[in-house]
């Protein structure tokens, strides 16, 4: 497998965690979203992913984009460890939380949107994340065990940790979100979350390396 990734991309991080959890080795091709006006806009990368976004995964003779679609494929082809519970209610809760983050928070504060916000980008990012986290904190109070849904790591957790990282980057006050904070701390103790962390990637700038 070949993963096109950017060290600080939260969507790429989700996929890196899934690959690490499932023990799938891969080659990483860095795509710097800032350098050269954004390497994702090159003709070479557009041929790989017409949406000009990371992550993109070449695996088993196909090319997949969109982090959740990639994770679903990995789940179908490498079912252990499971990232979706077998219980239909818990599975629906995992998908709900993953979508809440992947559709309801992250796209509103990603690089392409923030570029358009100019000087208001910090305020905009904080507002988007705060609104999403207020809802997420309430949801997790009903679903969480050690992790987002019960005591098993799921796709929801793969979305949560990178989003908390973004929140901290944009200086969101995490005080009002004790459940999110507790789960995030527990997840960051797991090896798959450590090795996939933005501070430990081949394309991480020296000053940001762990």
Automatic annotation (TrEMBL):
Biological process GO terms, please?
A: glutathione metabolic process; L-phenylalanine catabolic process; L-tyrosine catabolic process
Recorded GO cellular component terms are: mitochondrion
| Gene3D superfamilies registered for this protein in UniProt | 1.20.1050.10, Glutaredoxin
* Domain called GST C-terminal: residue spans: 87-206
Instruction: Quote the subcellular location field of this record.
Output: Cytoplasm
Read off the PROSITE patterns from this record: GST_CTER, GST_NTER
For molecular function, the Gene Ontology terms on record are:
glutathione transferase activity; maleylacetoacetate isomerase activity
Q: In which pathway does it act?
A: Amino-acid degradation; L-phenylalanine degradation; acetoacetate and fumarate from L-phenylalanine: step 5/6
Q: What is its EC number?
A: 2.5.1.18, 5.2.1.2
Annotated keywords: Cytoplasm, Isomerase, Phenylalanine catabolism, Transferase, Tyrosine catabolism
Give the protein's cofactors: glutathione
Q: Which residues does the UniProt record annotate as the domain GST N-terminal?
A: 1-82
Q: Give the reaction(s) catalysed.
A: RX + glutathione = an S-substituted glutathione + a halide anion + H(+); 4-maleylacetoacetate = 4-fumarylacetoacetate
The UniProt entry, under PANTHER family, shows: MALEYLACETOACETATE ISOMERASE (PTHR42673:SF4)
Task: Give the protein family.
Answer: Belongs to the GST superfamily. Zeta family.
**What is this protein's record name?**
Maleylacetoacetate isomerase
The organism's lineage is: Eukaryota, Metazoa, Chordata, Craniata, Vertebrata
